[in-house]
Sequence to fold (267 residues):
Amino acid sequence: MGELVFVGLGLHDENDISLRGLEEVKNADFVFAELYTSLMEGLKIEKLENLTGKKIVLVSRRILEEEDGRQILAAALRGKTVFLVPGDPLIATTHIDLRIRAEKAGIKTRIVHGASIVSAAIGLSGLQNYKFGRSVTIPFINGGDVPEAPYNIVKTNLKAGFHTLCFLDIRAEEKRYMTIKEALETLLATEKRKRESIIIRDILVVGIAKAGSRKPAVKAGLLDEVRNYDFGSPPHTLIFPGKLHFMEVEALIKLANAPESIRKLIK
Fold:
């Protein structure tokens, strides 16, 4: 009986894989990878293959979700199989489902963790991780239908004084990656309809781009300032700070280029 090892690729390029993850790939019989749950802007599969000496088979969302990962499970029944995933392997619920299916089929599973956008974005912002509430994904608008869930989660967190980490939608097959500007405009559209004064012009937000790269972009400020800031190309992440500690205010000013005026937000 073989095994299935989930290996995190990290955030930016082929150099982000851990030494343990690299050894797992080198010793594998079969290697698969998905690149649809997150954008690794600097990753080149050819370079990763040269680094590991292994042929890497890319799998699509359809194979993982519609076909229940049968191609990967079939390989894992024959020998040691590594499944490469951007970030940390089990942040995406799709991959938890695959691990459960493997265990039910009698396939031993293991995890080699990688850097996650969750910890990276929070760390880059300078905000304290234990003060974050529920996170949310802001999706692309389909046919003018503006989703309310992201707005409501930000509202709930803010009322409790919690920060909100917002993941931005990715449609890898279409090469569409939501930007901070698009995410804020989606929330503003919801505000226009609901009129609950949650996503307003003077709300403090933090935008982060290219977390994990050598030159990440981090900018904190009022909504319009961040919306019009040039973050460069995706991947982008968005944070809505809640109640701020004085150390968080200092971090936002020094590390995220926030205006000095945010000092008045200390409570």
User: Anything to note?
Assistant: The chain has a mean pLDDT of 94. The two ends are 58 Å apart (CA to CA). The chain has two domains: 3-112, 117-265. The CA atoms of residues 249 and 263 lie 6 Å apart.
